[in-house]
Structures are given as structure tokens and as C-alpha cells.
């Protein structure tokens, strides 16, 4: 399984990847993750790679190799859509975060719906309902659990093992994401 | 016990298991986490040195005294440490000495994509390259054995896709390695010409032995599969090749210098076509060609950027490379509330030429601030501003540097600017941390890498001791004060330093302020010129995202109509 997690620096793609890595470990799979630190964390476009299965070589998902693009922001879903494998799916938070060029009126936010067939989740709203905009990542993990028919209890265990702060709120966010895709 | 681990963490684990006692480094993506992780082991003295040259000298000293030592840096850091490296190759070691160097193909967080493998060849020091976290632990152990057996520093190279990848690691126990006995040995450790002439012969002999011995190192291994195609590769690329071409035969290079040439020649005999897949320079390919081995690689893969599985599928199997949608870019930004923003806004307003430097504040180069004219390397801002000023005495140019970078290699530039008198103005953006790499301490923060209190380097006193005419300290949130001080400094023919001091907003939330909001916006767009990620233009008007705003009030100060408030 190749899951490309994309979003905006600060949205918690690294923690989401850590949870998925823990999930796969609990299921007895081999796991490899690839992430980028430094410059890209400052509100820039970020991408984190999660691969698990019986035997994994490279930790880096390639263009045309992702089973799922898990997007915390719709424009980022579109930016990385060419990473999808044939039959791959996009699961995205539906709330846009305009990049600086759009925010200052120099560029237009693209019509993502017209260019991308994606399953959408109101993750920002659900995160706020759970208690903080910071748990968009957990809402999206909940929705992913439903989309891929992953084991919900194992995912909850993975969150418990990986998340150090505000566990109750994060668990609630996972639940809201999971329920959102009924 | 097994654990999913970042390779940088695995290198630290490997160092601990190998009995390392001293680690000295300067932060640099993608190498930083190694030293942050060794700092958690009480058996290892871990420290942030002011720069990579000092770090390596610390490592050489500890090694000479008999301890196993490690020094970590990014690729451009090795340029800084090159001076001691080339002569440490002559002195050899006491306790094992390993230098970890992390290259950044594709420049995720760097100013160039140089290939550090050439340092191994120029300095005549062996270089090894692991392919994942587990191998990193084993290779650190191997590196220390090599170092002590061959009496040489050893370079351990990673790239971003190794350093920042996670895979499973089997945790081992620490093996205490007793200090080697220290005996004065001037011909070995005192490199004056008479001694160095003798040591150069030792270096040559050592390399010849390594060239012969590496042919049978198990870390250089042949994986015979289909004989139609044989691929020579190392590091992260090995994993990409295995993924893309599961049936290809592979020569996995564990020691990239010296290369096991004869073993690769033997492998070449067994396959129809020999392909070298390597990122950056044709380091392996050219050596094979120079030894008469028919091969190719750079005809398919260029010098620039990373190689991915998709590139290999495309170049080797002709599979189409999917193309990306054209969408607006999203470069990284100065954070909402970043103390650097106000200074850049003022410098832009004053139409200054800004000789910038390396750090978060490099981001001031991007629109809409677009405030930076040059960035070259750590510390370059000051020397460049001095040179620029000499060439154009009327130029209104300033050097802008961060606190950590100033201590790294800016201070020598300032000494030069005063000594050779150009009358530059230097702005030190002092956010009390090494920001870009994730908030590491440095000599001016008053804390060590291991969290202990330390004497705090006094930047004002240091600049005055360099001989500058005046040092002003301003709060970068107070743009009026910044502007007044900068105007005064720019009008002065003497060297002046302005320290804009406020802690990084990501490190210390010092503000006791509420998020702001906009009412009755006239749509002039002035506030958008700050490039604050919390301000968005919506239907021609500015809107503040209250979840991001930290209340720094810069936008309130620039709004000409008083529309922004709490």
C-alpha cells in the first residue's frame, strides 16, 4: 500500500505518517516512510510518503505509484495527483488554504473539482468540532480508515501509541472522520 | 527489540552501540537529528559547535586522545570542514573517527546540490553509504572498525531520502570501547612539512590497501538475477532500482570510495549491459570508464535532482512519466508573527540592496517581500556587503544575517569589514535560536545541545570588540524604531551593527496578544505586502485568519486607514 500524504507545512503530515506506520507495524507489515524536514515546514507544500506491505524496497513513492493521495488541502491534492497509480484514489480535505500568490491576488485558486475526481471530507470543520484545527490530520486518518476499510480499532490503537498530546481530542477527530464517510 | 526509526536516529543509535564518546556537529538539513538523538544518550558528550570546521577539529582531538568520535554535517558543511579533513587524512586517528555528511539532491533545503563523494577521493579517505535505517546502524559499526583498522577518518554519506526515511531497526546494546592509550607521536600528529611528507606516503599506502581489500568487503555485494541488465548503484538509489527493476542484477556498492573496481569489472562480464544509476555527478560511472569498463548512466539520468522509481521506469523501460498539473506554487513562508518580517519590510521601504544569508530569513527573498538581493553561503552576507560597498561606495546596501549564522562564520567577515573599512551596516536578525533546522541552541542562546546552561555569547560586546562604531538593539516588531535606527546607520560612514532581537515565534510564544481582525477594509493591499500567511485577499479585501494570527500588529502598523484592530 502506497499512501502519499500531502498538505501545507504545519498541518501535521509527519504525525499522520507516524500513525500509519504504527498501524502497519501493529498489523505485522513491513513499513517505510519518507519525509522532508527543514525549509518545507514553513507553510510550504509538504509531502510525506507511507509504504507498507510484505516487502518494501524504496521508502519514496513515485509518480504513478500511489494507491491513495491523502490530501489535507485540495490544491495540494491536485499538485500531487500525477503520483496516483492507475485506479488510485484521492481523499481530500475540502477546505482550501490559498497559497501566498492567491492570497495576494496574483494567481487564482484552481477549480480542483473540475480537474480531480476525489472523495471529499469537511476535515477542517470536523477538526474544529473535535476541538482544534490542529487535528485535521486525525480526521483525515479516520476517513482513510473507512475509505480503505482498515481496522478501526487498530487505527485507534496506533493513534494512542503515537500521539503524545490531547489524546481524547485526537481520538474524537479520528471518530468524526471515520463517521463522515459512512 | 525492533523499532521504526529515522535513519538519522539510527545513525545515533549506531554511534551509541559502537561506544562513541564524543559527537560534535553544526545543524544542517538533512543531518541535524543525528546529534539531537545522540544528545539523549548520557554516555555520549554531544555538542553543537559554532561551525563544521570547529566540530571536526573537536572530533579529531577526541579521536587523538583515544575516544571514538563522530562529527555530523550537511554537504555544504563539509566545505567548511574541508581544511581539517584533508590533513586529518594524514594524521589518521587514535580512537575511530567518523564524519557523517548528508547530501541533498533535489535541494529540499539547500543552496546547491554538490556531490560530497568527491571529497573522499580528494582527501583519500574511505566513504561508505548505507541504504536504509537498519543498514545505517551496521555501517556505523563498520565505519569505526575501518577507521581504527586502517588508521583513517571515515566518511559516512547519506542523502535526504536516506537521512529522512524511516524503516525497521533491531536495537542492540552499547559496547564500551576503552580509550586508546595516548602517547605523544609528533611525526603522526604534528603536520609540519617534514612529517607530512612521510604521512602522505602512509596515506597512499593505506589507500592502496583499501583498494585491494574492498574487493572482498561483504558490504559491496552482487545480486545476480536476470543477466540481461546489470545495475551498479548505492544508497537510496539501490532501493529505487530494486523497486523499479526487480529482475535486474545489481552490484550494490557499500563503499563508494575507494570503489571495488575489479569486482565491478567481474560483474560486468556476467551481464549483457552495465548501467550505473547514481544521483548528481557521474562519480562511479567515470571511474569505471577510466578503468575500461563499458557502462553508461548519465546519458539517461542527468546531473540535476533526485532519481525516482518513475525516472528509472521511464529511462530504462520507456514507461511514460506522468506530468504534474499546472497549479500555483506554494513556497515556504516566514511564519505569521515571524520577527524577521518587520525588518525586511523596512529594508524594502528604504530601497536597500540586501546581501542576505542562510537561514529561515532567506525566505524574505520571496514575493511579496522580495527583500533579498543575494544569498550564497553561511556567513557570506558580510563579506559580500563589504565587497559590494567597495565596488559601489554610494550603494545603500546592508548585510543581513541570523544569530546562529553570525556565530558560525559571520564574525570573521565583520572583523574584515572594520579592518578594511567599508562602512557597511550589518543587521543581525537575532531570534535566539537556529531556526530553519528546527531550533537548535548555539553559543549565544545560553544553553548547550544537552540542555545544560552555558555562558551566553554577548553579541553586542562581540561586535564592539570587532571595532564597529555603534551597536543598536531594536525590537523588530517596532518598525518605526527599526526604520529610525537603519536610516541613521545607513547615513553613517562607519561600520554599524543593528541587532533586531526577538525570539522565534515558533520557539517562544512571548506575545500576550490577541489575534487581529479587519473592519471596513478599503482594499489598498498594503498589509498584503507583508507576506503574512494569516492575511488573505478575499473579494478585493483583506481578511485575517484568526487561527493563524498571533497578534504581532505589523499589519495594524502598515494599514493607512486604521482598519485593523483586536
So what's the CATH class of the largest domain in chain B? Alpha Beta
Structural class of chain A: alpha/beta
Reading the helices and strands of chain A in chain order gives: EHEEEHEHHEHHHH
Q: What does the average pLDDT of chain B come to?
A: 97
- Domain module count of chain B: 4
Largest interface: A-B, 53 and 57 residues
CATH topology of the largest domain in chain B: Rossmann fold
Provide the β-strand percentage band of chain A: 15-25%
The CATH homologous superfamily of chain A is termed Pyruvate-ferredoxin oxidoreductase, PFOR, domain III
What is the strand tally of chain B?
22
CATH architecture of chain A: 3-Layer(aba) Sandwich
What is the CATH domain class of chain A?
Alpha Beta
Rough shape of chain A? globular
Radius of gyration of chain A: 15 Å
Question: Unreliable runs of chain A, pLDDT <50, ≥5 residues?
Answer: none
Work out the number of β strands of chain A. 6
Amino-to-carboxy terminus distance of chain B: 53 Å
User: What is the subunit arrangement here?
Assistant: heterodimer
In CATH, the architecture of the largest domain in chain B is 3-Layer(aba) Sandwich
Number of helices of chain A: 8
